[in-house]
Amino acid sequence: MTQEISVHDATASLLADVSRAGTRKRAAAAFERIAGIAQRDTVAAERVAIALEAAAEELEAAESAGTLPAHERAVWATVGAPLDDESALPRAKARASVRFADLVASSIVGDAAVARKLGGVDPSRISQRLSERSLYAFEGPKGRCFPRWQFRGGKPLPGLKVVFARMAKDVHPLVVDHWFTTPNVDLAVEEEPVSPADWLATGGRPDRAAELAEDL
Prior knowledge:
Blueprint: H1 2-19, H2 24-38, H3 42-65, H4 70-78, H5 88-106, E1 108-109, H6 111-117, H7 123-132, E2 138-140, E3 143-146, E4 151-152, E5 155-156, H8 160-166, H9 173-181, E6 184-189, E7 192-194, H10 196-201, H11 206-213
Antiparallel strand pairs: 1-3, 2-3, 4-5, 6-7
């Protein structure tokens, strides 16, 4: 656990350094440091690679677009990035890039892998479930990524279709992941808040969770 936290925090910090680097020397130094993190182990390397790819896309977009569009400024303001601080937005984007890398690394990748997890069902059934929204996946660098919170005991969580029917299809994967895995005061078991994933896993009413999902 300690190593993963260290990799996460260090990568986010270094990506922020790269994003706001004012000189080639600073950028080169930051990349040398982040390369050292990637060399520690294969898990760190995978996360660093995904995070750097996302950061590179952000930098290229910033170079071509110049001033951040008003609608994007509004989005970043909602996640607490003080836009009057020049370093705040790069830090926020760096953290998001690393969180996305963590989510990809912890997910099941590919329809065939999920089919095996579900007891060897035909992979075509996975596509059907995605279409009917009784399973959730997002596109990653190596294909569809299925977050593990939607599986319990080798089966999909009950009620996913009901919940996703009320959730907008364009909700960002990081938002979906955070919502499903974070205790919610409106979903309580024995007076203790539980996450939507745990709510469904323990027999909670899907329509109650669906009402909350509609607000995302």
